[in-house]
Amino acid sequence: MSHIPTEIPGVTVLTKANVYFDGGVISHTLRLFDDSKKTLGIIRPGKYHFGTDRAERMEIVAGSCRVRLDGSPDARDCVAGDTFEVPAKSGFDIEVAEGLCEYICSFLG
C-alpha cells in the first residue's frame, strides 16, 4: 500500500518554477507549516543527473523512471507508488523513457 500523499494541506507554494535541463525537469517549492520544504515536479523523457546537499526522499506519483544512486553500479526501475532515498552530499541519475514522471521530493534532516 502506497503512502504517497494525494494532497498536502497547509502549505505555501512558491509560484516561480525551478527549471532544470532546459525544461526537462520542472518543479515548484512547497513550504510546510513546520518550515520544512518539499518540491513537486515533472520529469520529461531524457536522462538527468542531480547532486544533493541534503538527504532527499523521492516519491514517484505517476509515470515511471530508472534511477541509479551515485556510487552504485546498479539502477532500479521505479513506478508510481515507489520511493527512493538519496544521501546528503551525493547524487543520482534519473532516466525517463517515455511520458512524464511526476514526483514529490522531501528534503530530510
Give your account of this protein's structure.
- The chain is mainly beta.
- It has a single domain (12-107), classed as Jelly Rolls.
- The protein is built from no helices and eleven strands.
- Strands 1, 2, 3, 4, 6, 9 and 11 form a seven-stranded antiparallel β-sheet that branches. Strands 5-10-7-8 form a four-stranded antiparallel β-sheet, with no helix packed on it.
- It is globular.
Concise overview:
The chain is mostly beta strands. Helices cover 0% and strands 54% of the residues. The chain has one domain: Jelly Rolls.
Sequence-ordered SSE layout with sheet pairings:
Elements: E1 12-13, E2 18-20, E3 25-31, E4 37-43, E5 46-51, E6 56-62, E7 64-69, E8 76-79, E9 83-86, E10 91-96, E11 101-107
Antiparallel strand pairs: 1-3, 2-3, 3-4, 4-11, 5-10, 6-9, 6-11, 7-8, 7-10
Query: Number of DSSP helices?
Result: 0
Distance between the termini: 25 Å
Q: Give me the Rg, rounded.
A: 13 Å
Stretches where pLDDT is under 50 for at least 5 consecutive residues are none
CATH topology: Jelly Rolls
CATH superfamily: Jelly Rolls
Q: Please give the domain count.
A: 1
Q: Name the helicity range.
A: under 10%
State the name of the first-level CATH class: Mainly Beta
Q: Shape, please? A: globular
The average pLDDT score comes to 94
Structural class, please? mainly beta
CATH architecture: Sandwich
Work out the number of β strands: 11
Give the DSSP E fraction (strand runs of 2 or more residues): over 45%
Q: From N to C, what is the helix and strand string?
A: EEEEEEEEEEE
Main beta sheet: 7 strands, antiparallel
